[in-house]
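Many introductory courses stop at the sequence. We go one step further.
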Amino acid sequence: MRCRTVLENARWVDGNATSGHQSARAKHNEQLPEDGAEARELGERVLQALAHNSLFFSAALPKQVFPPLFNRYRPGMTFGNHIDTAIRTHPVQPVRIRADISATLFLSDPSDYEGGELLIEDTFGVKRVKLPAGDMVLYPASSLHRVEPITRGMRIACFFWLQSMVRDDAQRALLFDLDMAIIKLTQAAPDDPSLITLTGVYHNLVRMWAET
């Protein structure tokens, strides 16, 4: 309730405040000023929630998280094809990260708006993402992606970037799959001696690939 009140009463500005040259040509949305009190308050809430989310840690293996930002799309607004800037800096906080992972946390229910799907391209085609409020998608910051035009309602989301301890997308994916398999095996057969071996493999791979 507090987050919704803050978002409804906040001052929104042109989303190109944080755009690079390429993105500015394709971006037509609004966002909270990244140095504003509203963005700081809501961003802290997001970071606190992520700190207690083991699935997020397993998928991202975060080394540093950029202070979360918030955007809004009204009818006619869109964000065309673009690739996120590789290095992100903050105008106020002493933050400078390599953007390995992009994150979008949906704050509007899908029934609140039409259009506004996040489209992410990879080697297997285009993935179309439109999640319930409170759900988040992580995807490689190096991927081509876009937000489809809004035709009804309003789409509000939180977005940010992460520098991972494991910068390679394929290596992170392998570690995530291995971690999920270990968790499932732990639940199904907690006394299976292969758990020790698999857990050791996981941590040794992290040790091999991680940058601290």
